[in-house]
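Proteins fold. Shown next:

***
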Amino acid sequence: MKKNFLGVLITLCAIAAQAAAQQPADYHKWELYGGYLQGRNVYSAKEDDVSFGGATQNITLCTPDADANFGANFEKLLCKRNTFHGFNTAATYNISRYLGIKADFSWQRRKATYVDNFGAGGVQTSTNTENKYMVFGGVQVKDNATQKRWKPFAHALAGIAHEKLSGIDLNPVQGTTNYSDQPTSFALKLGGGLDVRLNRRVDLRVIEVDYVPVFAGNRSLTISPPAFGINVIGKTANNLTFGVGLVIH
């Protein structure tokens, strides 16, 4: 009897194990995200130290002194929270139903032209292109159950931000100047959003909102021709991003 009972028990365990192996996981192990990204960003500098003829002038940005030196309209690039457009992609491996390891990449771009009249110093037209490339890694918290319809999530990510500002100043009195600022800085991405299940494999990311501080340091501006030099004093840029897109499992 014991042998028969043991044989039946082993058979039942084998059948249960086989059935469990054939059942789909109760949560998604992977997710891939792609979508539109809008950035509301500030320039990562608080002061320009301008060297000309052996002397250095310290100019605090977003002040009347800076307006007089760089132009009140050009200061909108340096002082305002400007709108960028781009895309965001991310991949998450879920180590449990509620916790995942996440890698994130984003790109943003903005182009603008500013015109300032310096009187006898000429009318200056500045055309600028700004690009931001950001790579992050960290953790995500979300209920990844396969049948879950509404999926709020939060994540905490750390990484690097490479920013590139390139521009050209055209001035009939002072000539043409090309310049470039390309800091690479430590950055964070802290926020979350809401996914809505469309079917077993696809979710709609209705909204994602993130606080993205960029901790930029001091650096030298590249200027051509090198008639003068500018050393940029960095600051923490307190940026915001908003996203919408699709999540594929």
